[in-house]
């Protein structure tokens, strides 16, 4: 390398510098001789430290010892003789060993001295302090116990004096009837119908707490249990306001108060029938046993139920596509049952009990109330009760009908039919329509039975009927002539129509218009009268020349018409013609004719008497003047009188 | 509750042209002496405690068809409820997957209701009888889970209706199953939680059939 730099390297000095001259030269101390270093090392031996521990310590503090070297060196220099320190130390050690041998020999001889193990002196604790601390601790524990006992005694005596039921007993009763669970320190209950199959989103949780004292109870009574208290005092089941319970339930604000669903059938703004779904009357017996909370919870559950019912109805009202659309405004649903007749379902929820408590509605329809209640319960039941499949490997869920669809090769229409279900609103509308139709039919039949006296109209309503179908049997008889003839017909009252089945097998379908039913009954009365007359004539040996149930005169009705009958006396010299019209009232006309006339005068047109046998002129009889109670009775008299004349 | 309305599932079937169902299954067994305890517990845990448990009495016939291209025969199970007017159920079960990550055994499955001519039809197609047995017991429902506790009864050939048929063992088989469309992974977890609740009485596990040897 051309441009390398020279670096001088020198060893560090091994010996200590003794002196630095003014010119800078360093005078080194000559290295110690072997004897000197031996003396130095020997001086460093500490003969008093002989135990193993000390040696180890010595090794550890080797670094520290290096520093001491300088001091040793000084001592070494000061001492007179290099081995002086060693000698002194050895001498000390020798003295110590001598003393040790003396002690050992004395101890071994046991002549002068006996070694006994010494009792270790215990810690210097004062017993009096210990006694005091123990006493204090015990007294504290006693105080805790006494305090607890005092509380329990107070609670017991209070309970005995105030006759307040125990919180835990009440909780047990609550637990028997309601769902409760413990969440950290609080007790939370659930009053929703979710476990019964409801899918309503609103939560029905309530909180259970211990009522602190009577004052608190009253305060809480104003906001939570107010409705319960006032209702229980108003109801006559013996519940007193004073009967404060040790348990308090806190119901969410949206479930407080009283709710009910009002169903009104309205015709041209006039109420026809009203139903009120209100489950408040339930569980009276239970309430007497248990506390106020039972009432509160029942009310809250009722509110929840009504809300669910109304929400469901409102949802269906919007989804359904009716010819006249349903209207949902606020808390009210309007649906049209029949022309001019409306069903109004409204949710009434009042939080303050007494002010908005409606006056009891007299026209309370228990059937409709029950139906609405039942319909939602049915939905709940169907939600939670699916049929089990058979055989067991079949899938869970499809109904029995749908399981059969494959093997029976159901077509698309049949499958689609299976998917159709009636909503609650549809069902309640159908039921309301039916109730209305039934009332209307009853009204028509009753007024007819009142107005028409001659043949008697007797209607028998079936006691057993379905919510949307009932059945009435109508018998038309004439008093005194029951054996001769009886006309009966059956009317099936459906939702929007009537179905009439006559005895001869004719089936007629009528609409909801009451006039149609009225016409039908009147026509049936007509034909009843004629057919009875025919039978009566036969009994009296008269000959029926002709009869017709539908003359086709007057107003042509689809269900029947004027009817007539022509009778001839046994020896055919008299004839009676009867015509009964039914529009608008029953109108009977009777004509008689006799042939041959007793007085015969030959004329150029009728030269011989036998021509008179062809029949003569009919003369009208003033039927209302004829004696007799009824049409048949009068006719019997008439026929009898005409017969006797010829005899 | 995952049981959708009939209309929905019908439209789903129409659009997809296929019902890709999976069966999630856990099995276990319990001795005859302890089955009462299990029934009590199931009554408490399952839906509709107010009604008594639903009994069933089924005859299962397994038919197999040898396939030329593979040595694994095609198995079809036909099940019939004895003493009850219900359609036969034909069932195809796919290969069970025992995945460690899943809490249950999973196999594809296809159910089909049939008329009573199905066995003749299968015989004509070339299916041969593989085995048959009677399962008799009770079933429970919890949400979409189906729990069956059944006794398997051996059949003496030709005497299906005979009451003298012997039970296979002194214990009941307990099955917990859910049939769900593919892609519903939380089913397994739901079942595992339920199986935990039956724990000391019956240990419901995913049983790997392949390890049981040559059993069909």
Features:
heterodimer; A: 647 residues; alpha+beta; 3 domains; five-stranded antiparallel sheet; 21 strands; B: 216 residues; Hypothetical Protein Pfu-838710-001; globular; transcription (chain A); transcription coregulator activity (chain A)
Short structural description:
Chain A is an alpha+beta fold and 647 residues long. Chain A has helices spanning 34-44, 52-60, 62-78, 84-109, 127-162, 167-177, 214-223, 226-234, 284-289, 292-319, 366-384, 400-405, 412-419, 424-451, 514-539, 631-646, and strands spanning 17-20, 26-28, 179-183, 186-190, 205-210, 247-250, 258-267, 270-277, 327-329, 332-338, 341-350, 455-461, 470-478, 486-493, 498-502, 507-510, 543-548, 563-568, 574-581, 587-594, 619-621. In chain B, strand 3 (74-81) and strand 4 (88-93) form a beta hairpin.
Please give a structural write-up:
The complex is a heterodimer of chains A (647) and B (216). Chain A is α+β, with helices and mostly antiparallel strands. Chain A has helices spanning 34-44, 52-60, 62-78, 84-109, 127-162, 167-177, 214-223, 226-234, 284-289, 292-319, 366-384, 400-405, 412-419, 424-451, 514-539, 631-646, and strands at residues 17-20, 26-28, 179-183, 186-190, 205-210, 247-250, 258-267, 270-277, 327-329, 332-338, 341-350, 455-461, 470-478, 486-493, 498-502, 507-510, 543-548, 563-568, 574-581, 587-594, 619-621. In chain A, a hairpin with a 2-residue loop joins strand 3 and strand 4. Chain B has one domain: Hypothetical Protein Pfu-838710-001. Helices cover 19% and strands 38% of the residues of chain B. Chain B has 4 helices and 8 strands; from the N terminus they run H-E-H-E-E-E-E-H-E-E-E-H. Chain B has an 8-stranded antiparallel barrel. The mean pLDDT of chain B is 83. Chain A binds chain B through residues 383-386, 388, 390-400, 402-407, 415, 418-419, and chain B through 1, 3, 5-7, 10, 21, 47-48, 51, 54, 56, 58, 60, 77, 79-81, 84, 86-89, 91, 111-115, 135, 139, 141, 144, 146, 148, 150, 179.
